[in-house]
User: Fold these one by one.
Assistant:
Number 1:
Amino acid sequence: MSDGPRWEEIFGANGSETQSPPPLTRREALAAENANRSSNRSLSGNSAGSNRPAKATKQPKKRKSHKGLIITLISVVVLLGLGAAGAAYAWSNYEPQIRKLFGWEEPIDYQGSGTGSVIITITNGQLGSDVAKTLHESGVTMTFDAFYNLLLKNPDVQFQPGSYKLKLKMSAQAALEALKDPNNKVLTRIGFPEGSTVSTILKKLADLSDSTGVSLEQLQAAAKDFKSFGLPSDAVSLEGYLFPATYSLDPGLSAHEILKIMVDETFKRLDKAGVPAADRNRVLTIASLIQREAGRNKDDFYKVSRVIQNRIEKNMLLQFDSTAHYGYTWAHGERQDDSVFSSSDELKDDNPYNTYVHAGLPIGPIGAPGDIAVDAALHPAEGSWLYFVTVNLDTGETVFSNTEAEHNAAVRQLRDWCRTSQSENCK
């Protein structure tokens, strides 16, 4: 083991150079003692009774300290001589002091293309400084300056709003190239088919949480506060008010803002169709039944609308399986199966959506109707039909009947089709 100075002696326990002078050699100590004696004799004067002034004692010259140079030389020797393990130890424990000693600047940038992944969002109107701050705070770049200084050298760089999938600990240059690559942009375009329920829509929106930053829990909390969306006073939930369409969602939107876009689209469509604001809930409820019950033929939408009107006018129960299915799920959290036929439990369940139990319309929509269903709710076809049933689930072929006997015959036609096709929906 070398008898040279330790790192703690060179740099001190608190990370700064020690202030204590180096120990004196024996020769230096004797010289200092003799000088001290001479000084004492001068101060006490000459022999007794002498009036001669005391002769001034010559002070020893102060020795110039070479401590800083010695420390530097020792540091170099140690760094070069300790080997990889010793140098690593020295660097890990005394990096700030070593950097200060040699005038080495702290790094401000990572090296390479990074690791892992992270989603960052650039919104409309953000400046280069905003992007630099976002990248640093998201762990993409080491410092704000690393990316911002790069932008100063590239003043023509323009950023497109959106969400981007980047990596952690990227060099500023790698991060800039990644933001310029359209393949790294996370798409926030999403669509919903007619008849979609709120629960289905929220789950699908939550699938985009990596790009939107909005979780399922946040969406569910926003949907629960349905009155904040300006719904009619007789609305009981957001069901039916999230218009089924394709949306391009801007980055940075909150859960409430996303759902508000869809609600506003519903109001826009209803206003265009001429639906009075006070009649929105009733029309959407009828339209949602039409959307669920009608087949694929556009004319069937208007015929189903007529059946609804005729049965209500005759004080008949609507007895729609779609309401039995929805109501049971609403009341119990899930359906028993996916069959088009209602189970006995669904048929008798006393929930406010079940039209096998309660007369008239259910308390609200059972899904999101599209434009055709809304138009059909307002303009039912002319006819005396009281019954209908889809007899081919693949093509959507539907039979409309005036009497119960005709309807029962059509139901047998559906069951025959189910036996032949062995469709999963018939089980």
Number 2:
Amino acid sequence: MKTQTMNRDWIATARTLSEALPYLQRYDGATVVIKFGGHAMGDDKEMQSFARDIALMSQVGVKPVVVHGGGPMINEMLAKLNITSDFVNGKRVTDAATVEVVEMVLSGRVNKRIVQAINAEGGRAVGLSGKDANLMVCETTDPALGYVGTPVEINPGILHGLAEADTIPVIAPLGTGAGGETFNVNGDTAAGAIAAELKADRLLLLTDVAGVKNAGGDVVTELTPDQIREMTSAGTIAGGMIPKTETALAAIEGGVRAVVILDGRAPNACLLELFTDHGAGSLIRAPR
């Protein structure tokens, strides 16, 4: 009985690989930007699963670019250092002391953990931040928020070089200002700006929800920008989903072919989205 079960598993695996062939061909050489964030970052098994997906994507010819967040880790470190934060309209004020902690956590602990995980799965990853090679030049988003930046210029030369060397960039969302300031950048915003500059085939926004939901609470698997705007006006899209859909719309307007909002905690979420008929999450793209 055990042998028969194993044989059935092998057959199912072979069938899955065969069915994936058109998608493997479709994405060969394609640039895919992945925003990695949420609670999956803090779980070792989910981190390993994500890293394996990224390594496999690179192995089959996809050009992945990873941009990560790290809010919970920043909060943890600020608490340890007894650094209190002020908030304006629900948004953290990033003062000089806070931005130093943000850079330490994002470029150090979080970035290197992701790089190490991908390399452990056979990938070839290199960590950097938006400050390296002036990758992401920013302006102040709102003076009341301190060192929070909005990207105004993306210089992707370093990313092109890494892609040519079959190396996976893992990018911490920090930017540099005209005067050499360090800016904390929202991870989704950073990923969207980089994806637009690269004219990426896909931007995958990994989060803690299954996707964009309609008024009945069901995930909508495919949406147009106009439908996103209508659902936002109606209040169906609300709360934390609004900035993600705004990032998606900006990325599409900037030249990204499609954006997918999906649950990063789901096993093999990236592979399901790219290499299966079923996909995962909510795909947003202009009408064809």
Number 3:
Amino acid sequence: MAMPFRIGVLQLSMEPTDETVRMAKACEDAGFDSFWLAEAYPWWRKHSFEARSSTAVTALVARETRRIPIGWGIISPYTRHPVQIAMEARVMQDLAGPGRFYLGLGASKIFMKEIGEGEKGAEASPATVMRESTEIIRGALSGEAFRYAGKAFDADIPALRPDAHASRERLPLYFGATGPVLQRMAGEIADGLLTASITTPEFSRYARGFLEEGARKAGRDPSSVDLGGVIVGSIGRDKAHATDGAREMAAMYLANKVQNIRGSADMLLTKAGLTFDEIRPIAEGMEQGGRKQAARAVTDEILSKVKAIAGTPDQCIERIEEYRQAGCTHILLEIWGDDRLEQARLFGEAVLPHFSKYR
């Protein structure tokens, strides 16, 4: 069965918790289809942001909202054992209720770089870590007795007694991935794929190809696997002012690509028509003067290549249509700029109704 087309919001867990909860409520009121929290990491401290646990914050979001589905977008098995991830997923099931939680999992090159390469070091590749994590998480949440001995992780879990208070719902599990190996694996064993920031329509086509290849290999219907793209967003009635927020968020992510995750970012930039030499002044501006200076280095040409969903409502509708036609079935808007609560309201009033026919 083909996936519906959905539009959600994603933000990093680098802002005060109360602000994140307010944003989630605003997104629910605006009619967005999902709210995702990506786990930030301490690199952002250099730019006046603090990393927070996305699993802890999403639990609060689940308690303070009623309808909007909530996703981890993503957490890494390099920072939590898969059994611990399953335990935290139980909390989200308790608080969010049926059908309101998406579990997003990704290797996260920055965490691999900062804290090592898994429970058993370099013996296991990221693909092995992701496959084993998926099997353990699903095994733990099934309630059946589960024993596992892998290259990266081990687990030995007794059966859940029938009278135990715990959900038996099967959770949708998403992979965050930029490379072909994990994108194919997402099609094979996951419910969906999340592509990274600076996703463009061309990268969506690229990822959709590998996702569907993996699904066909596993005998699955390729159209039943969700493709979510994290895309910089900013909206306003005035075009110039509306794109300022997108310029600043694009600067932060492009600087991050240069400084932290070269290699996995290469294809993202290639599909956007960007080179490292082209965006290096942005990273230098980020280091020398912070995100405002970096934003000034994002030229109109670079911003055009990033393909942000930014500008007036009509311009945002036109750009979202580009992503939909490229095979993206779940937009994850990363809204930035002035008064994001008002931006969420404006998206809900002037953009979301246009796409209701695809839901």
Number 4:
Amino acid sequence: MSKSPMASEKALIKSRAQKYLSKRNYKKALGEFQRITKLDPMDLRSRLRVGDLLQKLGRAGEAVAQYKQLTRHYAKEGFLIQAISLNKIILRIDPSQEEIGKELADLYAQIGISSQIPAKGQKAEKKLPEIPLFSELNRDELHQVVSHLKAQHVARGSLVCKEGDPGDSIYIISSGKVGVLKYSKSKQGDILLATLREGDFFDEFGFFSDQKRHATVKALADLEVLEISRNDFDEIAKVHPRMRSILLNFYKKRIIDTLLAFAPLFRHLQPQERAQLVSHFKPRRVGENRLIFNQGSPPTSFFVIKSGEVEVFASKGAEQRVILGCLRGGDFFGEISLIFNRPRMASVRTTKTTELLELEKADFDHVVAAYPSIKGTLEVFSRKRLEVTSHIISSSWTKKATATMV
């Protein structure tokens, strides 16, 4: 299909503009990008480039005016993260423009309200895109977050942060994309947990737990990120305590995804497939020496251990008890009864406080049906576990019976 006359003209002008940029001839490059924006006012990248070039040429006032127009346009279209990023650039050029952050929060909140509750006789506008954390904030909460965010540029191929390094801040991507990598001892190298893009945020593990980076994050393209420290977030949460629960819910989802990436049963899945599974699992914390389920009970759930330890045992009568094994982080249990549709053949209790991921029967059946590879692995593993368990129980009770007879 041939290009339209306007598209062909734009491509030609953009080619000239790039040549001028490569030669650092910013004045001529600016003229070409201004021609593009007149030809196509909705070319937001070219409008952004105009602002950048005005700034390079020392025309700060004009650059700020260009950025402010673009900020409002981004906010109206629902591109909140990009609008916030531009807000930070404006303040860097002209700190007196501090009111733009409040204006941005007001504008986004108004659009969000109008997109959900149309006036009588009017159709609803398009719904603003869902952005983790930001989409659930009200006007005042959003204004507080915007005022504390710091902007940072990271070149393609550079690391934003490295696994194991100290750090307790959260990053939000305003443009570009990153790869989230974590070292695997079994593979002797990094594995890709996820690819994150505009609107996504990362590094919440260190923020909530031990102030260490729990993954390496690499810029896969030139990157603009917004950063908020835990100290700043804590200050906001004192006034707006709901902020903590919003972020905590997202943190729990990330924990589940990371565990699934390393669990033998799920590690072969692609990141987008794991993301679909995450919503089915529910985190569950069980105290020390607590029964998770009892032998003979109906199958209700499948479990993956996040941390802690459980003991699997079988009983026959009041005295005869056989320890079948101990399971730890990354191990799973409860699948035999679900797969073979039979009562629990053993009991499971915690030996210490344990964090579990629970998949209820209906969700388990859905996952197994949706992912044949998981079903095949589970069936093979479960048959072997069933054989070993039956053998241990039979041998142990035979020995005990013989000892009693003697």
